[in-house]
Amino acid sequence: MKRRDFLKRSAMAAAVAAAGPLPGQTTVPEYTESAEGDTGLEWEKAPCRFCGTGCHVMVGRENGKVRAIAGDRKADVNKGLLCVKGYHVGMILYGQDRLRYPMLRKNGEMTRISWDEAIDVIADRVEADPAAFAIYGSGQWTIPEGYVAQKFMKGGLANNHIDPNARLCMASAVTGFISTYGVDEPAGCYQDLDECDVLIMWGNNPAEMHPVLFSRVVDRRSRGEEILMIDIGTRRTRTTDHCQHYLEFKPHTDLAIANGIAHLLIKNGTWDKKFVENHCNFRADTEKPTLLGREITFEEYKKLVEPYTPEYVEKISGVPAEKIRLLGDLFGQRDIRICSLWCMGMNQHTRGTAINNLVHGVHLLSGHFGRPGDAPTSLTGQPSACGTVREVGTLAHALPGGRVVANAEHRAETEKLWNLPEGRVNAKPGYHTVLMWEKFCTPTEEGGDIGTIWVQVTNPGQTLPNRHKLFEAKRDLKDKFLIVSEVYPTASTELADLVLPAALWVEKNGVYGNSERRTQQWFKMVEPPGEARDDCWQTLAVARRLYERGFEAMKGRDGRFIFDIRNEDGSEIPYWKWEHYYDTNVDKALFEEYRQFTRLKHKDLAPYDEYVRAHGLRWPVVQQQDGTWRETKFRFSEFDDPYVTKGAEFEFYHSVTKDGRALIWFRPYEEPPESPDDEFPMWLSTGRVLEHWHTGTMTMRVPQLRRAMPGAYVEMNPKDAARQGIVNGERILVETRRGSMELPVWVEGRGHPPEGTVFIPFFDETLLVNDLTLEAYDPFSKQPDFKKCAVRVRRIPNEPYQEKGLAPVNANAPG
Amino acid sequence: MRMRQVETFSDRTKGSRLVFIGVACVLAASLVGYLVGLSQEPYVTALPRTTTSYAPSTVMSAVSYSDMDVMSAGPNAGWKSATVAELAGDSPPPPVYEDQEQLLALKKASLAERAENRAFNGAPPLVPHPIDGLMLESCMACHGEGLALGEVRAPRMSHEYYTNCVQCHAPLGQPFQEVGLDTPSVFVGLRAPLEGARAWEGAPPIIPHATYMRNDCMSCHGPAGAPGLRTSHPERHNCQQCHAPSAELDQASIGDFDESGFMSIFDSRNAGN
Predict the structure, then answer these.
(1) How many CB atoms lie under 10 A from the CB of residue A607?
(2) Gap from B45 CA to chain A (nearest CA, Å)
(3) Residues facing B193 on adjacent strands
(4) What's the topology of domain A682-804?
(5) What's the pLDDT tens digit per position in A204-262?
């Protein structure tokens, strides 16, 4: 049915409930003849497959298929509520074009091969050049999947070329936490959202990206509570609609705003003297900035923030001085509880680490820290960015449990726990994401020393910035080999030489870790289609094949396979044979091994079986005298965290300065790497929408979600559109220095960019906005800035809309 | 699918000729199934790049009052197709004790209509009409108390008050795109049951679905509900006096007690606080 007809039908009777058949539902539905209704299903818990919120869903099964989803009422995260993606999460398994068989490109054609052959192909690539083999993984890896890949690379091949897509997503949050507190991940939890009086969103749109958490706040209002909500942003969003204040800043100038707040706290004498004296030290950049900077005194800090008067901040950021004063006054009130939220706006930023430091700093300086509701809270976009990437450490420089390859002690501990020969783990960090893909896309003879990349659980063909340079360039390099484990055809499988069909979500066992340090487990519920298999098994099978071929790197100290899993009687379990993979719970065996790593940084995990019983537990999970396991909601706060010294009130026990104190940083505002100019006069920002998750690989195959958001578009301000005579729905040309594309314009649509800014979502695989984006990245986190670059838009000659002479959109509309 | 056909045919065939026909049919069905299966083998990893198109005719321009009479698309199109008086005028009041057979037919039609607007029984329904604003007030104007004018119904919210309606209820897409409605999916959602089980003929049926998020029975079963789903006895107000909910569907289980020793069925909103 055409959309036009659809509109007609629904408008005709104003709201005849019959809305016409939905995609995939053209026939009259059958009814369950039994009177059992929904009780005919088997229900089981699982965390949602999508974002970092970590909602729990109940999965309803019948005859080996998922048939319904419900919010899990016993889950503390979501308390029974889900978002539109979560309610439809079961349908992601059933897109008709699921990948079912391993496929190898032979003479340019994709040809079905056996798993045995596929494993051989990968083992051959590894053996031919182990130093040039890389794994590109994901914050959607389960903890065991990431752990296996991590050990395979760092404990096996030892070239350290393993990095995740989370590098594009929250790497700046990690460097922000580490350089502030000496250890990664938020101190608070979602309870902060229930108890804050003021919620400040820094370049964040949780109404669409973390809707369940957003509802947790705004629904408090319908229960009669008052919450002051402030949106500090570069574009009006659905979140803005719920806020009392909207502080629109010029892209990149959020650093000036944060420094402006610090300036006012000091000028007004409203900083928390006791908290700062007892719990904080000060830092500033060295001449050549480093992650750890140099120590400064409070007096020096005062001098550094001195220039950031409200008027000066207004000049840089465009936010009126009175609004800066509003923020300064709020932070100066010690009796209210303030929670800051941020996600990609602050992280996808070439000054990402710096702005993370500054927002933590404002909370520390004002003492708005560590009481329920007083928290700087960083959100994650992937279901296990925290659990798998940050905790297992699947980054090019990291080892499990907060360790790093550069530290000799950490390497020795890791070798001991992994039972590896001394010196196996390489001290030199591998290539981070942008560098890994740059080397892969550079001819070998010109120094492109990455020859093979194995991509698991992610879609770099769509998400890498400047994808002409970092992805498409591979097309012409015949000696480079791309392996992609996937569930559907994507922009990444398009260029792949070997495609491996993967099991998805409840087609396998898994463990995820969400944004509030909560580790959550689920069991396999349905069979994957065709010959699709678990990603974890895929890596283990390659490791075993290499071991059987006598490849030394897959042998431990005693010559045993590095992924040795045994029965209680000491006999080996041949889980690398697929038919035996579920003879034992491989996830559990790997989790128990990994758990030993988690004590060093007090990120203690409980035994696997505790997670089977719970709806997730927040680490550190500490065993009590009666044998039970207790989770920790508020880290570093004496009232809740058992690792804080009694009487200290707060203690940052992994402090950079080794004295239990956190660091308050001064980081100056600096110009962005690319700003609008005469040639490219506008800002381009990119992002997500509520209905789709990341590259749409899963959600674009759910008819209900696709109907709601069928394709990408470019949001424009009505004044900018009117100036060029552009009308709503008209296709225009959008160009940056890196590429160009044609997109329909949506004025006054989902979001409302200010004059001089356009916004394009990145979910649409037919309109790849990363052809346009800039690959400039933060010097510490190596995370690229997807949120801003210079762009121009032009009408396309002979576009039919112009001839039809439709009225341009109203130039006087508010915007 | 193929398996089921085999069983059906072998059950029905007694004579040898019938057996022969049956076997032939099975073979034919198998062959067709095999070929269809072959054609669906997903060897192709190229992207489906043609799924979204942009049709000039669907461009929505701003509507002025003078244009409203002639609008052929958009939220105000057809606003004159029925007057409020017409809508409210001739429709008979909902029957109270309806003919059982007629009731069943009405119920089936209503359930079919209902199923078109959600992925499975229990999924939040989609927004079946264009929405201009996303402000809460615009949803609540009709769905706050519920509206029924003739066959036009805006059901009252079946759940307690939540602020962000479009968090769960997906709206229509952008106004200017041809939507590729045929997203190929093999998902088969749970269908609504035809009725709740009864202990014996004449006993009140149990509630065959979860009551969580569907705790206002009158949203669907009230006088403004769809034909066949309406209660036959609107004069009674305490539904669960006679119709038992399901602890399992409401996600309460035996041994799941709160601190005071009561089974924690109704406390999930505050769980963990």
Answers:
(1) 14
(2) 5
(3) A32
(4) Barwin-like endoglucanases (2.40.40)
(5) 999 999 999 999 999 999 889 999 999 999 999 999 999 999 999 999 999 999 999 99
